[in-house]
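re: ur question from earlier - yeah i can do the single chain one, its not a big deal. heres the input i used so u can compare w yours
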Amino acid sequence: LDIGNAEYLSIHRLRVRNATEAAIRYLGAAHGAVENCVLENGKRGLRLASSPSVTLTDVSVFASTGVGIDLYKSGNAVLERVVCRGSQSYGIFINRSPATLVTDSGCADSTHAGFQVTSNSTSVTIRNTIICNNGQEGILVQSGATGAIIENCTISANGGGIEFEDTATDGTVRNSICVT
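and the output i got, formated as tokens:
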């Protein structure tokens, strides 16, 4: 499902299996919502590109052959009660998407990091989230990312715990458990 240049569009109760690209792709769409959706066995579960202020609620992404959820230049996104499991790349990839909030969610069994926050992503918050059994780091905050906050999270049984690369600045981890 491709959505482009639309505002205030909502998707509810959609199930997509075996998509050859992203099951849902927002391109240049603002202020949208994706709720109560299940995305299975696709190349990507969900991709937001240049789509600010989109909210994902009660979305499950299973067994993507690529990234589970991919945010690119999509600031002010909110991911609430999102589950991403079994991606053959990164679970949730936050790239140049400032002020993103992930809360009450889970990410497990990805081949690479559960979460990757790239450079030029500022003020990303991951809260009340369980991140486990990922092949690399539970959370990787790359050089150039600023102000990442990780709070009340459980990060366990990943290839690594939480990694802030050399020039990632102003990061905060609080009230979280991290066991590798």
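The mean pLDDT is 95. not sure if urs matches, ping me
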